Amino acid sequence: MSLRDLLLTVLLVGGLPIALRRPYIGALIFAFISLANPHRFTWGFAYSMPWAFAYAGATMAGLAATQERLIGDSLRRYWPMLLYLAWMGVTSLFAFERAAAQSRWIEVAKVHVMCLVTLMLMTDWTRVRQLMWVAVGSVAFFGLKGGIFTLQSGGQFLVWGPPSSAIEDNNHLAVGLVMMLPLLYWLYMDTKLRWLRALLLLTALMTAVSIFGSHSRSAFLAIVAMSLFLVLKSHHKISVMAIGIALAAVLVVFMPQKYWDRMKTIETYEQDSSAMGRINVWKTAINIANDRLTGAGFEYYSIPVFKRYAPDPDDIHSSHSIYFQALGEHGWIGLGLFLSFWAYIWFVCRRIAARCRSDPDRQGQFLLARMLQVSIIGFAVGGAFVNIGNWDMAYYLAIAGLATWRQVGSPVTSEANEQRGGRKPRIPGQRALPSSETARAGIGGR
Question: What gap in Å lies between CA 246 and CA 10, rounded to an integer?
Fold first, then answer.
């Protein structure tokens, strides 16, 4: 038994009664466990304990008892993803690898059940802010850690993500960290505490270093796409471009030649076996979708399937793309549902920005909506080359957007309030928090 195991166990066991009493805190702890995987950094009994399951149970039990919840409204807002999830269930019934597909569908369903539970508990802006701090911090920690490692090693070694997670692979982690950069800026603007701002600035810089330390071509393209979007949308185009040029100059000097040699293979992908393997599995996904309405189902990457559908049946890979992942596993209908969901979230963020742009009391919501859009650009471009289509973090960002629109869009009442005869809800609704209340909420916000 290590001290690390004991300390983590004491903290997480001690938090379970809090999750029962205040389920939104349980949802935050669940997000931390599922994104940061803290138990995977122990070496004893805590490593394999079902912490996420325990907090999911405690949070849902607390949800059943609390009156501070928005069940019907959340179901209505999350319905595009629930429809996609239902279609995944259909494709799993007709999957080539039915047992493995159904097992994987259950795992994905658990992610979205807890995302939906979390959305039900995001009843005011303070809670949305707290969710963003926990979720972004859980992933950005690996950017801070990876950046320091990259500097220490001179960029010679790859940076890997948390063990047994969706972003364990260096390419997956890099794209995930690209998505965190704009949100770290939002966190920076959300707090007035100088020491915390300094820490966030350091984390953002180390995250950028970590991204390049991953040697990921997909992350490189995602950063370029996000930078172009920021330049187009920014009112300070010259300043943004100057910062980008300065960072690029530093990277040119710092990163080793083998990094730039790898980036050059983007232009000569025909000579790169990894790139050609991706193209092979992408064509396989297209062939499957053209032949089967329901696609191949989860976990179809097997010798018999590739012999039947792949141009090169001996080159078996996973999809390496959020788009071809959806297409091959769930057919053209699945891809359409996946794209529709993210288009829906994009326009939700656009509506938030339009509603809050000229409201001085809602500049936090306005900036969050904009940064969520930038993060979605990173997900859309970087995800084209890695299969993180079911990564929890992407859907926590969607929840943040949906919960924010609930606060700034139209007023809602909880089901519990309706059952009490329509009395005024205890939920703050759209009211902007004074600075004193925001400080008590946890992050000294603005």
Answer: 46
